[in-house]
Every structure is written in C-alpha cells, then in structure tokens.
Amino acid sequence: MIDDLFLDPQLKYWVLLPISIVMVIVGLVRSNITGLLAPDPKLDNYKLSREKHFLKRATSFKIGNSVLTTEEFQSRQEYYVNTLKTTEYFANKNIANEEAANPLTDPTANEALMNMAKGNIMNYIPQTVIMAWVNYFFAGFVIMKLPFPITDSFKTMLQAGVVTPNLNTRYVSSISWYFINFLGLKPVYSLIMNDSTAVNELLQAQSQQQMPNLGAPGGPKVDKVFFAESENIQILNHDSIFDGIVDRIVESESTTKSSA
Fold it and tell me: Where on the tree of life does the source sit, at the highest rank (predicted)?
C-alpha cells in the first residue's frame, strides 16, 4: 500500500477550487433559471378548499376527540358520519357519476409532465457538461488527501478514474471530487441564497402523507375518501379525559394529605 504521495500544492488552485467554484456557480444559475421557468402558482377554487378543509376537520376529530365529553363526542360523531355520506362539501356535486379522467387528455397532467421535463433538462444538461469538462481536462488527477482515515470500501468511490490499486484510500481523484460536490453542495447553496426550499419540501411531504391527494389523476375519488372517513368515525371508541375526573382529584388530594 502506497501511504504517502507528494502532491503539488498548485493542484488545489488549478484543479480542486475550479471544480468547486464552477459547480457552485452553475448550481446558482440553474436555480435562478428554474425559478424563472416555474409556472405561477394557481389559487385553489374556494369549493375545493372547503372540501379539503372539511376532510381535515373530520380527520382532526378522529385523532383528537379525547378532549370532548361523551355528549359532545356523540353529537359531533353523528354530524360527521351523516355529512360525510352526502355531497354537501363536494367541490363537484356530480363526481360520483363522473368517469375517470384520461391523464393523456387532462391539461393539468400535461402541464405537470411538461414542468417535470423542464426540471429534468435543467438538471441533466449542466451536470453532463461539467462532468465531461472534468473528465477532459482533469482526468487521472489525484488532488487531495483526506485528513482522516477511511476504510477500503470507499476506494472505488473516492478514486474513480485513477487505476492505482495500491494507493491509500484517503487520496481523492478529480472526478470523485466532482461527485462529492454534486452530492454535498446543497448546504452551500442554502447558505448563499438564504433558501428554505428543503424545509418547504419537508412540510409538503408531511402534509401529503396526512391527507390524500384529492383530484389528482389516478388518485382516489372524493366520494370514496369521504365515505371511508365516515366509516372510520362511525366505529370510533371514545375515551374522554374528563371521565372519572372527580374521583381522580379526590384521590390525588387524599394522597397529598396522607403524605404530608
């Protein structure tokens, strides 16, 4: 195993830093162009918003009904069970008779596919050009040595493009440095742009897990979602935090006095 190599100090100025700087600049430019090409957000129809919020209210009742008394729970349970079986809160009253939309003819689906294609192009072309540039000008360069030990399992990842089986795993090749930057520059972009995109994506993912995607092509119909929620509420078991509260208070006071 070759433990030590003498690396030219100029490598970090002519290879390492240029790769990092170019990738940061390209990432910032790509982010700005993507923002310019992004379509304007569309406001939801008020009927669709009312439909989603009513379903959210029903879900909240199903999860947090322990703060209600038995009478309040029964009243609300009866209301939600009966209302969810009707079309009162449907954005489209005739959805039960509506045929499933064809994704190929749905303008919303076509627009989503076009936006996805734009995003893929904006990601694929710049990274392909940068990788070709690194491979052409800096192929076979060993540009740095990591300041900490690494197991041999990382050798293929850190020394891509360098055919030296006895080289210490801590040495990093130029093309491997490109991949490290490709996977690890997001915090740098967030710091430079003061971007909270990652947080917004996380919140959107959580909301999509909690609520079904109503109206999406291929998704469940609203009437089926409402009916399923009605059945779930109908079989709920209620345990109120107010049940036996007097006995618990008396018992707590008795325990306090006896311990004193």
Answer: Eukaryota
